[in-house]
Design goal:
The protein is of the alpha+beta class. It has 5 helices and 4 strands; from the N terminus they run αααβαββαβ. The protein folds into 2 domains: 69 residues, no CATH class; 78 residues, Sporulation related repeat (Alpha-Beta Plaits, 2-Layer Sandwich). It is elongated, with a radius of gyration of 22 Å.
Amino acid sequence: MRVSIALKKIRIIVLSLTLLALGSSTKAYAQVPLGIINELQQFHPDKGSISISHDDKISQLLNSFYVQNASRPGMQGFRIRIYFDTGQRSREQSELVMNEFMEHYPGISIYRTFDSPYYKVSVGDYRTRDEAQHVLKQLGRKYPKAFIIPEWINFPRID
C-alpha cells in the first residue's frame, strides 16, 4: 500500500518536472541534453533558479527514460490498413495499391510492410482513434475493406 502511494507521488513529481521543463525550455539541443533535473537547476536570468534535492537514482532513471524514448521516436497511435494480403501477386498488388493511394491522397503518409507471409499497406499517423475514424469515412468508398489498427506511429504534424 505504501509503495503504491510512494510510486504515485514519484510519478506526479516526474510529470510535474517534465511539464515545467518543457514549458520553460525553448532552446533546441544540438548536443546531448543535460537531463531534466540539471536543466531545471540551471540559472535563467529572466526566470531565476530552482534547487532540487533528490536521490541520484532519480536522475539516472529520468536520463535512461529520455535515452530510451529518443532511440525510438514516435508514439502509440493509429493507422488505417487499406491492403492486407498474401499470395504470389501480393507484392505487386501492394505496390499498385500504394501508388494509387499516393495519386489520390498526396497529403497522407503511406507505409508498406512485409510481415511474412502478408504484405500490408497502412496510411496515416493519427494520435487518436477519432482522427483515424474521420479519415476512414472519407476513404470508405474507395477502400471499403479498410480498417483502423493501433500501431507505433511517427509524430504527426501539428498544424
